[in-house]
Amino acid sequence: MRAVATAPSNQPATSVRRVNVLGVGISVLNLDTARAAIAAALAQGHKGYICVTGVHGVIEAQSDPAFRAVLNRAFLCTPDGMPMVWAGKGAGFKEMGRVYGPDLLAEVAEWTRGSGRTHFLYGGAPGVAEAMRQRLETSYPGLRVVGTFTPPFGPLAPADEARLIAQVADAQPDLFWVGLSTPKQEKFMAAYLPRLETKIMVGVGAAFDFYAGRVRQAPRWLQRSGLEWLFRLCMEPRRLWRRYARNNPLFLWLVLCQLTRLKRFRLE
Questions:
Q1: What percent of the chain has a predicted confidence (pLDDT) above 70?
Q2: In the chain, what are the helix, strand and coil shares in percent, each to the nearest 5?
Q3: Which helix (H) or strand (E) holds 244?
Q4: At residue 228, what are phi and psi to the nearest 5 degrees?
Q5: Is residue 264 situated within a structural domain?
Q6: Whole-number Å distance between alpha carbons of 191 and 189
Q7: What burial letters (b/e) apply to 24-41, b meaning 16+ CB within 10 Å?
Q8: 221: which residues sit within 8 A by CB, 6+ positions away?
Q9: CA-based nearest residue to 15, from 5, 24, 25
Q10: What are the strands, taking DSSP E only, across the chain?
């Protein structure tokens, strides 16, 4: 796996390098450097979106070139799963660490509380964003969550879209957190970043359910070992078994092909 420098034309300028994992550029980051990159982008008034990406996202990108382009145009594409971290370390970046959606949210919440920076929560089932807001404001006194929005299950209807745009224009949040599934949340951010009066959008998926208390997180030792997927499978077997039965073996096979150069994956 090869490291490359990237600076997408429609995103904030950044010196963060990326590791080519099956044609997806995973940013060489840890929690500290991810927070610093976000802080710099906000200080400079840049707009951008951040994709928190693991095995599921990388495999989805293999059959969806448009989604792969969304990931590779992101301001940051953080290493969500341990396989992304191992890829970075294998490329020589020993400082690379997992930048997991819930942890990134916690890191940024702690950093921004009392700073005047504002947050907006978009996603989740009815009631989830509000429950998450209450927990965040309790856990991080001084945090300013200036709005929430629960989207419908399908695409936004024109009336919902107009309501969202107006609500965000009124709140003008610095950070817009998106809790949808992959690749829906990444495509949403790429499409709506130019249309919403916010600066940094971050797709954190299941973090909404974790913070709302609807779903349990895996113990830290399982997260560090790369076995979080097994914990989640045990928690939600009917929803997740097909994903893991397909994605995990396919990912291992394609990585072997990349490492042995049986197949080349271009970083476009």
A1: 90
A2: 50, 15, 35
A3: helix 237-259
A4: -60, -35
A5: no
A6: 5
A7: bbbbbbbbebbbebbbeb
A8: none
A9: 5
A10: 3-5, 17-21, 24-27, 48-53, 76-79, 118-123, 144-149, 175-179, 200-203
Q: What are the φ/ψ torsions at residue 161 (nearest 5 degrees)?
A: -60, -45
DSSP letter (8 states) at residue 167: H
Is 53 a member of any domain?
yes
pLDDT tens across 32-48, in order? 999 999 999 999 999 99
In a domain, 265, yes or no: no
The pLDDT value recorded for residue 7 is 43
pTM greater than 0.85 (yes/no)? yes
Rounded distance between C-alpha atoms, residue 266 and residue 260, angstroms: 15
Extract the runs of DSSP E, i.e. beta strands, from 43-117. Answer: 48-53, 76-79
The verdict on residue 164 lying in a domain is no
- Count the domains in the chain: 1
Starting at the edge strand that comes first in sequence, how are the strands of the sheet with 48-53 ordered?
A: 76-79, 48-53, 200-203, 175-179, 118-123, 144-149
